[in-house]
Structure formats: structure tokens, C-alpha cells
Amino acid sequence: MTAAVPTPLRLIVRQQWMSLARERRLRLLGLVVLALSALALFDAALDTRRLETARIHDTVAEEAVWEAQGAANPHGAAHFGRYVYKPAAPLAVLDPGVTAHLGSTLKLEGHVQNASRFRATDGGAALSRLKGFSPAFALQVLVPLTIVFAAFGVFSGERARQLAWQEIGAGATPWQLMLGRFAACAAALLLLLALVGMLAALATIPAWSAAHFAALGLMLAAHGLYWTAFLGVTLAISAWSASSRAALFGALAFWIVTAVLAPMLAPMLAEARHPTPSAEAFEAAVTDEVMKGPDGHSPRDVRFAEFEKATLAHYSARHIDELPINYAGLLFEHGEKATADIYNRHVERLYDGYAAQARLALAGSALSPLLALRPLSSSLARTDMEAHRHFLAQAERYRYETVQALNRDIKLNRKPQMREYASDVAAITRGIAFAPQPLALGELLPRTIVPFAALAAWVGGALLLMRLAARRLEGAA
Amino acid sequence: MLHAQALSKSFGGQRALDNLELRIAPGEIFCMLGANGAGKTTTIKLLLGFLAPTSGLALVDGIDVQKDPLAARRRLLYLPEQVALYGELTGLENLDYFAGLAGVPDRTPARLRGWLEQAGVPAAAVLRRAAGYSKGMRQKVAIALAIARQARGLLLDEPTSGLDPQASAEFHRLLLRQRDAGAAVLMATHDLFRAREVATTIGLMRDGRLLRTLRANEVSALELEQLYLDEMAHAASATATV
Amino acid sequence: MNATLTIIRMEGRRLLRGRWLLPLWLLFGVLCACAAWNGAAWVEGRQATLALILEDERATHAMRRTQLAEQVTPDNRSRYGGALYATAMSLRATLPPGALALLTVGQAEGYPMAATIFPFVASNTIFDRHTAGMENPAVLAAGRFDLAFVVVWLLPLLVLAGSFDLFAFERERGMAPWLLSQPVAPGRLLAAKTAARALLLALPLATILVASLAFASEAGPAALLQAGGLVLLYALFWLVLALLVNLVARNAAQAALGCLAAWLALVVLLPALALGVADLAAPPVSQAERANALRAMAMQARAELRTAVAPDRVPAPNIPDSLRRRALEVERGERLIGEALQPYRAQQAQRLAWLDGLRVVSPAIALQDALERLAGSDAGRALRFQHQAHGFLLEVRQLARRHLDQDRLLTVADYDRGLPRFVLSEAPPVLRLGALLFDAAVIVLGMAVLLLAAGRRLRRHATFTE
Fold this sequence. Notes:
The structure holds three protein chains of three kinds.
Chain A (H helix, E strand, L loop, with lengths): L7 H15 L1 H45 L2 E2 L1 H7 L1 E4 L19 E5 L2 E2 L12 H4 L5 H17 L6 H12 L4 H30 L6 H31 L3 H30 L5 H14 L7 H15 L12 H37 L6 H11 L4 H29 L9 E2 H5 L11 H36 L1
Helix pairs in contact in A: 1-7, 2-5, 2-7, 3-14, 5-8, 5-9, 7-8, 7-16, 8-9, 8-13, 8-16, 9-12, 10-12, 12-14, 13-16
Chain B lengths: L1 E10 L2 E11 L4 E6 L5 H9 L6 E6 L2 E2 L4 H6 L1 E4 L11 H11 L7 H10 L4 H4 L8 H15 L3 E5 L7 H16 L3 E6 L2 H7 L2 E6 L2 E7 L5 H21 L1
Parallel strand pairs in B: 3-8, 3-9, 6-7, 7-8
Antiparallel strand pairs in B: 1-2, 1-4, 4-5, 9-10
Helix pairs in contact in B: 3-4, 3-6, 4-6, 6-7
Chain C lengths: L1 H16 L3 H51 L9 H4 L6 E4 L19 E4 L19 H6 L4 H17 L4 H5 L3 H5 L5 H31 L4 H28 L3 H30 L5 H20 L14 H37 L5 H13 L3 H28 L5 H6 L11 H32 L6
Antiparallel strand pairs in C: 1-2
């Protein structure tokens, strides 16, 4: 019984794999990247634990402050406000997304919807500007650089070319050569990916669940597609270039454009196309609508006069002092609803603007696969704007309920003869709990289709380039 | 002019050159014959000061190369196996550059052209970029540099390897002219027949040792070849019996 | 000297004939132009926002003046407290962008750019309205494409691209022995090659940057010279680094790898490590914890003064006594806030001291710091503004206090004369110069270390013929 003869492709894959495994430089490179990613993951995990402890501590402290108010004017308490703290997403250890640039704290008060505050990037110095080394950075920027250095010389340079011609002369086709080397290198990358995945899983033990592993799996798959696309393009450049220096420069240029410049320029250009209003302009627009009405022609005092008339008619009273309920409280309630509606509309518009920017930036993935991977990865990690919006919506519901509960207390319990009115505000709001839920995987999956498709297209494109470059190898031989 | 005095060099435990005694006077061409790893290139590197000897002295015109390498190099011209020039510069510019490095004064275009002409570089090629030069042409530029520098010592490492017979013959004619001008020449080569034609003295090297020296005019080409093969066979059997 | 000039001349000729030098200059020019345009747009946006804030103040004053002039009567005075009482003054303090602000956004987005000053508002809340911006975090996370980014991150890549094979080119092609067999000291040869690149790479790039700045901003010659000098030093640092790498690498690919590794180490990894050290040694203040502590203080102040209720005076004064009680509450609250904030201020100061000190770790950090100071977008200026805004608040409170004591109402004449205005007092130039010199010294020190290492390497491997 004779042993089956391995096909040329398998031989090539095996040879390339052995060659990769034995090359000290590459082993070192791979180890360095893994070590850096592990370090970044470890640091992020420690940071997350610290932040979670702080969040619990702050929540308790805030609750104590609220309780310490004792008897207070409910409307004053509504202005005093409450603070809520955004829980960290477990997979933020792998991809912090935009969380460092978003506040983790939200002040909830009457009449106003605040943006989150206390960003991690606040209050720094020059050194802070050079921050940004996260596992996502290692995986999305450094690993492709490693791929460039590992793969630029696979087909370029005299020695590699001569070896390739020898192999072609021995019976392998250029496409088999190309595919074989690609498969071996891709296998090495997938090994790295698996190791990173295991580290990420270990760093997020408290969050283990089916959904968690599904999200992690999808993130790893996305990164895998990205790396293989990068590998394919680098190999194509290697086969295309006559000299190894030209191959190195070509691949480096590709990396600089796709992994450094495009990811920086795309959001900038997107914002130029769909400008974000400044906080002052936003507030001014909201205030304007509050004062002048949605169409700009119904001033607030006119609307309040109409409301007073309608209320008096409803209760068949001639003066607000004759009403069975406190008019100020009723007005607060009514005003709060109106303001909340206005704010909701403006915030919706603001976030629609952000979403339009994101769509435009995603369109840029035609020029750089990282522009598809980044939003995909942060989306799955729940560290993107949509996840933040989800939190804000839940916080707003809680704010509205709390403030209206306080207003209702004034409406129902403040009597006309009371000069000052105070009530146990903590008791009023005790029944209203804030328990934010993260964005469910099912909800964010539809948004992942287009980026995944873009990444798959990049892999397809890379394979096509490899095919064309392989033909060139043949032509050169 | 070129003097190796009990010159030895070891790399780790390996003896690359063993107690070399060599004296080359002005107007003399000494050809070193030997297989790869015999110590020919090591000798040249020691005379250039690229390597420090384990023991012994390398002297150029009485100057200890280790103590004052720049002074020694001022008197020497080294011709490697592959003379590399800057491709973006013309032959003239390359000569101007290297001669300038050596401190040759008054490097006017006319003088530079003259030196190149003396070395046999065609006038049409002088202003062409060196990227298009053949190996022989590049060597001629190096010879032009020797002429410009009036180098008193020439160290040549396999100068004719890769040259066609015509170019090789041309090179040797130039070499003899340098000898006649009073230069002391040390040439490491594999070309037995050419060596016999141009050399004053021939040395056979093996395993870092200079086994024997002969006057070139006292031995025929065939005898030289036989002597060489005997020495090499002796070496092979010596290693076989170990 | 002749040999040196010959080498510089020939090297320059080679570089120019390589046909990549001009495209490199052009590329840098384009990058600078884009970054300058971007920076200018950001400055314009910032100025528009500040104008909006000041316009808000102006409109409020105008409205109140009109109310005073046309609507207030002795009978309806109580309804126009906002216009009449000094305790209701609505003022703004703004931090204008510096003359070279387009150079870098720096820390400008991490600190408040304005303060809303009401005499009776707690001093820790005057910046609240201007702290949380609405910029798309995705844009912030991507990093601002300003001139500082181009210089700190990209300029080294360009300098390294032009000099990574300073000597590796010769070594790779086997030219090293032939070249070094000429009677020229290896050190002189390499120094001259480096000098040629300094003249044709470092100097032009620094000039292009200064030209971009001069064209796009209204900065004076002193600032432009300082910027140009710092950028030139930085470019020279990377040139010397390329030299050191070339003393070790045997071929161009190794040299390229070495240069890139050095860039990653100095621009990405070391700063990240330094920041990690700063986080451990001087962790950032927990803003949330601070906010809770201050809210607790505010509760305490309110509770303490709630008990002290005085009967209303007859006849009622012009300014109600409730405002005088409020003034006391504010004063008491200010003391409590000061005490409560003390440890946080100390912690923040310690953190900033660490962040500032750690800039010696890498020339990239030092240069970023220098550019921020030149642009006026550094943490120091922002904190200076906060300190002065706080001082302005205290001045305004004193004015309100005097009005309370005199029971004096605001008049139209007060509005016409102009209510208190905040004007930022910049730090004395000598302070800034000192900091810039420190940053320059860090870069020069880095160069000195590299040169020392290069010298040692040269002495041990003087011929590169291995």
C-alpha cells in the first residue's frame, strides 16, 4: 500500500509553513505582537475592573447625596439633579471604540438633556495626545505592519524570485505557489488570532455568556477577514515588484494609506460634509424652539397663556388659586413634557447627523478595509455611538420619570397657602430604578452586514490581485 | 612598500592567516594563488586595516596600518572583485568623488577626463551614468582612480573574475603600466595563467599559510598548474587522513 | 574639510538625482497644507463658538438694558430682578485661541473654553456648560489631522524614508570596503552624508512647515522661528537615529525595519508606557467622585443656613434680603468647596506634574508639548484661564456684595458704561520660552545619546566589512 502523494498545493503550504516557523525574525515579530496585545489586554482588563469598582462606589455615593437632601423643594431637587454612570462594555477591553472620548457620567436634571461628561481624555497634557495603544490598535494597525514586513519578501528580491522560478520549473503553477504561500501565512495569522481570542476571553470571564462569545467570535472573524485581505494585497505587491525594496515601499505605502491616513481623514471629511453643531449652537437652537415654538411663531408666553386658559376651562375655575391642583406643578409637568419632546427631536437630529457621518466614513471602506473593520468591531464591542445612544435613551426615560414624579408631587401636594413647600424627594423617587441594559446582539447585527460585506469584498479583491500578480510571475519566468 | 611581518589572524578558534611573511617592493607584482578560504582576502583586509591582526604587523611604506590606517590607505588603492559605483553619477563624477575623498587636488574636468582616458574608458562613456557600466568599465574607473591618486600600492582581489578575455587582457596591460610606474601590487586571483604572465612573484596559499613562493619567470604555465594541483591535493589527502 | 565638502556635494547630487526628493517635499507640502487648512477650520469653528457665547452675554445685557430703560417702573420692579440686581449679572469668560492655534488642537478639547459667571453660582460649576462638547467622538477618536500630527507622527516617517539607507545602500551593494579603503575616516564620511540629508531633507521640511504656518496664520516672526527651530531639531533627531540604525543594519531591508521599529518605539510605545506609568504613579482625579463630594458640600451649606431665617425688614429694601441670605450661603459654600476641592486639586496638580515630567521619555512627547505651548492650546494655558475665570467670579461677587451692602440697583448708565469684562492675561513670554527650551533640550539630549551610541558603535566596528 503506497502512501498518497500530497498535491503540489499541500506541499507548498507545508514548505512555506515550515519556512515561516523556522525564521527567527518572524517568530520574534509574532511574539512581540502577541506580547504587546497581551499587555494591552491585561492593562485594559485592570482598567475596566477599576472603573467598575469606581462606578459602583460613585452610584452609592450619589444615592447617599440624593437621600441626604431630606425635605427639599421637589423642583429645586429636579434642578439639583442626579448623576448616572455608564457601565463599561465587557468587550471594551479588546476594542474601546470611542468610549475614551465619551463621558461615562450623565447629569440628569429638569428642563435639560445633558451630553455625557467627564471624558477620559479631559484634563490631560501633551503626553495624553500620544495615547491610543489598545489591543484594537495592536490588531488593526500593528499586525498589518507585521504582515508587511513578514510578507513583502515572499516573492520579491533575487533569491525569492529564483526560488519561485525553480518551483515553477519543478511543476508548480504560479497560482498554486501564490495560494500555497497565502494559505500558510494565513494559517499563522489565524493562530495569532486564536491566541488573542483566548486572551480576550480570559480577560472577560465575568461576562461569559453565549451572546458574549458570539460577539467575540464575530469580532475575531472580522479581524481575520481584515488580516487576510491585507496579506493578499501584500503578497500581490510582492509578486508584482521586481526588487524587494520596491515591494517593501509599495506595501508600506499601502499600510500608511489604509491603516494610518484613511482612518484619520475619513471621519474628518465626513464631518466636513455633515457638520456637527457645537454644544452652544445646539443649546441655542433648543432654547430658540422652547421660546418661540417649533414653527418659530408661537412664543412661549402665548402658549403658556393658552395653557392657563385651557386648564381653567377644564377645571371650571376662574382663577388658578381656585384649582384643586397646584398650577405651578402642572405647568412644570407640561413644560417638562414639551421641553423633553423638543430635546428628543434635536438629539435625534444630532445622532442622525453622527450616523450620516458614519455612513460616509463607511463608504470610504472602498479605499481602506480598516474603515469597515473599525465600526464593525466597536459595534460588536458595544463601544460605538449607537451603544451610547442606547444608554442615553434609557437614561432619558429615567430622567423624565424622575422629574415628572417630582413635578407631580408639587402639583398634587403643594397647597396655595404654603409659602414654601418641601417634600421627601428621596421617597418620591424611590420607586424609580435605573438599570441600564446593554444593546442586545440581535439589535446590532443588522448594522454589521454592510461592513462584513465590505471586508469580504476586500478579501475577494485581494485574491483577484493575487491571481493577476501570479500571472505576472509566470510571465516573468 | 607592502610588508607583512609574522602576520596572523584568528577568528574564534579558527586560524585564517598563519604567520605570513611577505615583502612586495615597488615595481613588483605579487600574485597570491589559492582556493576560497586560503587567506588571500584576509591578507588584503589586514593590509587595509579592515581587520586587526591577532599577532604580527602589517606595514605599508613603513607605516603600521593599525596605528595610522588613514596614512596607510592614502598610499594604497584597493580594487575589490566587484567595483561598485554610484549609479546616479556619471563615470566622471564617480572619479571626481573618490579622488576627492582621497584628497587629490585640482580635479578639473580636463584632468579627470585625462585619467579616465589613460585607464581606457571610452570618451563617450565618461559622461554616461555609471548604472549602465559593465564590470570592465567600472574596473577601469577604479584604475583611473589609481592613476589620479598615484597610488604606491595596489591591492587587487580577484580583479578579472567575470571579465571576458578581451577585457581581462586589457586589464592586465593597465596593471603592467602601473607596475612600470613603480607601484607595488598584491593580487589575489584564481587565474593561474594570467598570474604567470603578469606576476613578478607567485605565492601559493592554503589554510592561511603561504606554502611556497616562486619567481614567475622560472616556471612555465603547465608547471605552475601542476605545482598548484599538487599542493591542493596534498591538502585534500591531509584532511582525508585526519 | 575638502573631503567633507566633496562628500556633501556628491551626496546632494545623488539625492536630487534619485527623483524621490522632490516628490517627498511635495508630499510634505500637501500634508502641511491640508493640516493647516484643517487647523484653520477648527480655529474658525472655535472662534464662532466663542463669539456665540459672547453674543449671548451681549444680547442678555442689551435685553436687560432695554427692560430697565423702557419697562421697569417702581411698581413692577420685583419682576425685573434679573436686570436690576447685581446678584443676577450674567457674564462670560472666554479663552481665545492663540495666534498659532491652527498648529495644533492640543489640549483645547480637554479643557473648558469658556465660563458662565453668575455671582451666586457655585464656583465649581462655572465651566459645566462648556465642558462636554458635541464633537463627534469618532472624529476625536480618529485623532485631529493638524500640523502637530503631521510633524510629530509623519515627518519622522518621511525623514526616515529619505535616510534609512544612508549607508545600508553601500553595505548592501558591497561598496563599503571599496569606499572605506579610501583615506577618509568612516566617521567623517557618515557625518558628511548625514549633513547632506540635513541640508536637503530636514531643512526643507522645516521650511515648508514654517511657510505653511506663515501663510495660514498671523503669527509673528519670533513664533515662526521658534516653530521652525523645534521642527528642524526634531527632524535632525530622526536623521541621527537613521545614522545609528545604519551602523547596525547590513542591508536596506534591515535598515528599514530598524527605522520603523524605532519610530514605533518612540512615537507609539514609549508614550503609551509613559502614560501607563503616570496612571499608576498619579492616577487621574475621579471627576464623578469629585462631583459627588461637592454636591454633598452644597447640601451641607444649605442645611447649615436653612436654620438661620431672619424676619423680613420693613420697609423692604431695594434688593430683597433673601438675596443677602443667599450671598452668605454662597460664601459659606465657597469655603466648603475650597476645602473639599483641595485634595482633588493637589491630585490633579501631581498628575499634571508627572505628565509634564514624562515628556523627557521621548522627543515626540517633547515636541508635541512644545507645539501645544506655541499654539496656546497647552494644559498650562487652559488652567491659567480657569484660575483667572475663578478670580473674575470672585471679583464679580465682591461687586455684587458692594451693591447688596449699599442696597444699590443697577441702572441704564451701568449697562452703558459696561458691566465687568473678562480679559485673559497671558503668561509672561519668558515662562513659555523656558518651557520651549526644555522641550528643545529633550530633543537635543536624545540626539546626544544617539550620537554617543553611534560613536561607540563606530569605534568598535570601524569598517563594516563583515
